[in-house]
Amino acid sequence: MTQRQRLHEITRYVRKHGELTVSRACELFGASSATIRRDFSLLMEEGAVSRTWGGISRKEEEATDLAGQPAWLRETLFADEKKKIAATAASLVEDGDVVMIDGGTTTYHMARYLANRPVTVITNSILIAHQIDLERQSKYGAEVLVTGGLIYPEAGMLVGPQAIKNIREYYARWAFLSVGGIEAEGVTNSSQLVVETQRAIMEQCETRVLLADHSKFGRKSLCRLCGIGEIDLLITDSPPGQADLIDNLRSRGLHVVQTN
């Protein structure tokens, strides 16, 4: 097990069970106490957990905006919801389609559902490209084109002028996009570089699909991505307390699909 995999599993365990001791972690992950203590220290530095006597615990109030946190940490939040959203998004794709997939912790899960399909995937995510390569069982699976560009820190995403230039060389049926926040006024994300790359993807695709779990509703990130009218479809779970916002989005003509 790699360190990233171990950190992911430690964080998921703590979120589910509330706390984890060094000794119990050694048993679960087959690692030395020195290794586990280093992992715990890293998680505490990232703000993912709190320190306890002999271990770590779930933070009572978790940060609502993890845009600046590494992808492995963001992946642990609402993982089951993200997988269902990704599966629903992938079910829209037909054999032979060309799709553009924006980097993100929800879009990332589309890799497993498309890896063995006869489709072409254009992505600015080295994580998605790598996962498709791992999941593909033969050379007849998905063909993957990576945009190139500047690696955005801690996200495994390629952004900047070179990424945008390369994106504009292609056309696709579908654009699958991540998001930082959704309000009635529009869609936002955390970085100007990320938003500029997403806009380029949107310009080159026939149908624009937003993938967002309920934690993104009613939030506003740093940069405006687009208005609600520029998105064709939103795939989400069931946002608690956000029924009015969902109704508002639908009244504006946005097609919303909610997973179970």
What are its keywords?
10 helices, alpha/beta, Arc Repressor Mutant, subunit A, 260 residues, Rossmann fold, single chain, 15 strands, seven-stranded parallel sheet, three-stranded antiparallel sheet, 2 domains
Q: Can you give a write-up of this model?
A:
The protein is of the alpha/beta class and 260 residues long. It has two domains: 3-62, Arc Repressor Mutant, subunit A, CATH 1.10.10.10; 73-258, 3-Layer(aba) Sandwich (Rossmann fold). It has helices spanning 3-17, 22-29, 33-45, 71-74, 79-91, 110-114, 126-135, 161-167, 192-203, 243-251; strands at 19-21, 49-52, 55-58, 98-101, 120-123, 143-146, 150-152, 157-159, 172-177, 181-183, 186-189, 205-211, 223-226, 233-236, 255-258. A seven-stranded parallel beta sheet has the order 6-5-4-9-12-14-15, sandwiched between helices. It is globular, with a radius of gyration of 19 Å. It starts with a helix and ends with a strand.
